[in-house]
Amino acid sequence: MEIKDKIYGILFGQAIGDALGLGTEFMSKIEAKKYYPDGLTDYSQIIRDYHRSKFQLGAWSDDTDMMLCIANAFIEESDFNLHTIARNFKNWLYASDTRGVGQTTFKVLSIADYVEKPQQVAELIWKMSRTKNAANGAVMRTAIVGLLKENVAKTAKDVCLLTHFDPRCVGSCVIISEIINRLIWKNEQLSLSQITEIGNQYDNTITEYIDKAFYNDIDSLELDEPSSIGYTLKALGAALWCYFHSRNFEEGLLTIVNEAGDADTNAAIACAVLGAKYGYNNIPKKYVDGLKKKEYLAKVADDLIEIIS
Predict the structure, then answer these.
(1) Tens-place pLDDT, residues 101-140
(2) φ and ψ at 117, to 5 degrees?
(3) What's the per-residue H, E or C state across 8-72?
(4) CA-angle at 65, arms to 60 and 66, nearest 5°
(5) Which of 176, 179, 244, 269 has the greatest count of CB atoms below 10 A from its CB?
(6) Other beta carbons less than 10 A from residue 271's beta carbon
(7) Which residue intervals of the chain are DSSP H helices?
(8) From CA 177, how far away is CA 41, in angstroms rounded?
(9) What is this structure's pTM?
C-alpha cells in the first residue's frame, strides 16, 4: 500500500467517521436504535432534529475542522509550529460557521492572549477544573501528527497541550499519533504491550481502557454513558477497539457510529486509524462520494504528501 493511499485514508477516514457519527452524536444506544432500527449506515438516513439540522448531510464537524487547522499550519510552515496552529485554532473559533466546539477548547481559545501563550493558557484552564478535566478535544485532531517521520511523541504532546493539559489527554494523543506513524512509515502495527508501555509514561489509568479495547466487546467501553461520553479515554478506547478487532474500514465505522454517545468524535479518531491501516482505496465509495467538501480535503492531502514525500 503506497503512502498516498494511507494519507488519503487518514484524512478521508477521519472526515467520514465525523460526518456519519453526527447521526448518533449525543444519543444513547437505545435512542440510536429507535431512530435507526436497522442501524445507521448512510448519510441520507441522518435525522434532521435541532442538533443535526445545523449540518448538511455528509458534512463534518469541529473534530475534522481542528485537524485541518493543524494540517494547514504544517502546509504553511512545513513543520508543526505551535503558534501557527494556535493562530489557526483562534481564527477558526471566530469563523461564522464554527459549530460543536467543546467546552475546554472554547474556554482556552477565548482567552485574549491565547495565541501568544497557548500552553500556559491551557494549563491555567486545566488547573481551574481542579485538574480533573480530560476531554477528548485534543485526541480527536491528533491523527495528522502521525504523518511526521520523527519526533512524533513530543509533537503530539506539544500539540495536545495547546488546549488540553491533562496527562490522560496527552497519552491518548501520543498513542494515536504513534499508531498512525507506524502504519504509514513502517507498515507495522504497534502491539498491545507497546501501546501499554506508551500509555504508562503518561497516566496509569490509560491501561484500563487499552485492556478493555483489546480483551472485551465494544459494549465494555460504555460509549453512550451520559456522564463520560466526552472522556478522552473513551475516545481512545473506541479507536483501539477498531484497531484491534475491525476486519475492514466499514465494519469499524458502523460499529462505533451505532454505539452512539460522542459518536462523531469516536468515529473520527477510529476511522483515521482505520484509514491508515486499510487505505483510502478500501473505503466504500459511497462514503467518499457523499462527503461535503471532499475536493478541499483531497487538496489538503495532496499538499501534505508533497511536503513529506
Answers:
(1) 888 999 999 999 999 999 999 999 999 988 888 999 999 9
(2) -135, 60
(3) HHHHHHHHHHHHHHCCCECECHHHHHHHCCCCCCCHHHCCCCCCHHHCCCCCCCHHHHHHHHHHH
(4) 140
(5) 269
(6) 35
(7) 3-21, 29-35, 62-77, 82-93, 103-110, 118-128, 152-160, 167-185, 192-200, 206-215, 232-245, 249-257, 263-278, 285-289, 294-308
(8) 27
(9) 0.97
